[in-house]
Write a structure and sequence with these properties.
InterPro entries: Peptidase_M50B-like. By secondary structure, the protein is mostly helical. The chain has eight helices and four strands, in the order ββααββαααααα. The protein has one domain.
Length: 237
């Protein structure tokens, strides 16, 4: 059976199985790449920066962002209304998932150079305006310098490989971090980060929010795969 229908909603089991297997395989492969932990902080930065940007959109104040060597991060912000915690908390995981789609979209349009400039610019802006702990500042500075050198001096094959490494890691980490949030929500509901924050404001269990984040990340992964393989087939014609 390739399709499952639940209350009128048709689920393509084969397609979603391919997505999950693709993510698992990519996660395993990226772990073998030297210094891959360094690049996993790109996803963390985008996650925290999404919180910060939503705070600013809602007229709040971003106090600071901290990035840590274990690929975790935190954004401290101030806002006037309790309800604003909902879109701010939602922005992190959803923003990181959408950013992965954006990276694969640029790759399909052969705009890797523009993508590298965009990623480095976000890291530089974060360094100047938001990131305030020692490790986070050093990471942002190092990433900006490395990415700038790759963009400016690397041969096309290396620049493309570097870009795809970041894109694949962002894709995988957006799914893995959301799935891990499900685990935390079941075992330590009060320590489940954004899901716990949303639960405190809405009184909806944190597991519901964690599952929502996971569903969004998987959907974005499916879109990214479609962009990647469609672009590859089109390029081979």
């Amino acid at each position: 059976m390739d399709r499952l229908q639940i209350q009128g909603v048709v689920i393509d089991i084969r397609s979603w199985t391919k997505v999950i297997l693709f993510i698992v395989a990519t996660a395993c492969l990226t772990r073998f790449i030297p210094f891959s932990s360094f690049f996993r902080n790109v996803d963390t930065l985008i996650h925290e920066l999404s919180h910060a940007l939503m705070t600013l959109v809602l007229s709040g104040k971003v106090m600071y962002i901290h990035l840590f060597s274990n690929q975790s991060g935190v954004t401290y912000s101030a806002y006037t209304s309790t309800w604003k915690a909902i879109p701010i908390s939602l922005a992190g995981y959803i923003g990181a998932s959408l950013f992965a789609v954006f990276l694969f979209y640029l790759h399909a349009r052969k705009q890797e150079a523009a993508g590298l400039i965009a990623i480095a610019s976000l890291a530089l802006i974060s360094l100047i305006l938001f990131v305030r702990n020692g490790y986070g500042m050093m990471w942002c500075a190092g990433f900006v310098i490395l990415t700038g050198l790759i963009w400016k001096f690397a041969p096309p094959w290396l620049r493309s490989g570097y870009y795809l490494l970041i894109a694949f890691i962002c894709l995988v980490e957006s799914v893995i971090s959301s799935a891990y949030l499900v685990y935390l929500s079941m075992n330590m509901p009060n320590g489940a980060g954004d899901a716990a924050n949303l639960s405190r404001v809405t009184y909806i269990p944190s597991i519901v929010w964690a599952l929502l984040f996971t569903a969004v990340s998987l959907w974005c992964a499916r879109i990214s795969m479609g962009i990647l393989f469609h672009g590859t087939r089109r390029g081979n014609r």
